[in-house]
Amino acid sequence: MFHEEKRDFRRMQIHTPAKLIPLDVVNGEEIQAMCTDLSATGLAIHLDEVLEIGSLYRVLIASTSTAITSFDATARVIRATKEQDGSLSAGLEIVNFN
After folding, report:
1. CB distance 90 to 47 below 8 Å
2. What sign results for the dihedral spanned by CA atoms 41, 43, 49, 53?
3. Cα–Cα distance between 84 and 10 in angstroms, integer?
4. Which of 16, 29, 34, 91 could form a disulfide with 79 if both were Cys (CB 3.0 to 4.6 A apart)?
């Protein structure tokens, strides 16, 4: 059976380190995460800390190519889940690119 993708933008399955810098907390510590999914409007990450839904982060992903600029965006947490295996994941919506 054919499954139609309902999203406006295609997702890229990736596995690359990401750095999250909290924007709504003064002197908040950077959070290290693993980005697993990226699209024009959002991203999915795996991490060791729980993120609060609605919180804002600056998300940085270093480029592995000199021809491509690094990813730098402000994103809002729209989903935070504890998986069955105990790991933590989150979905973030891109608010704007920096």
Report:
1. yes
2. positive
3. 27
4. 91
**What contacts 24+ positions apart, CB below 8 Å, involve 22-25?**
22/55, 22/56, 22/57, 23/56, 23/57, 23/58, 23/74, 24/55, 24/56, 25/55
Distance CA 97, CA 63 (A): 15
3 state SS of 20: strand
Mean of per-residue pLDDT scores for the chain: 88
Which SS3 state, helix, strand or coil, does residue 49 take? coil
* Closest to 94 measured CA to CA, from 68, 67, 81, 75: 75
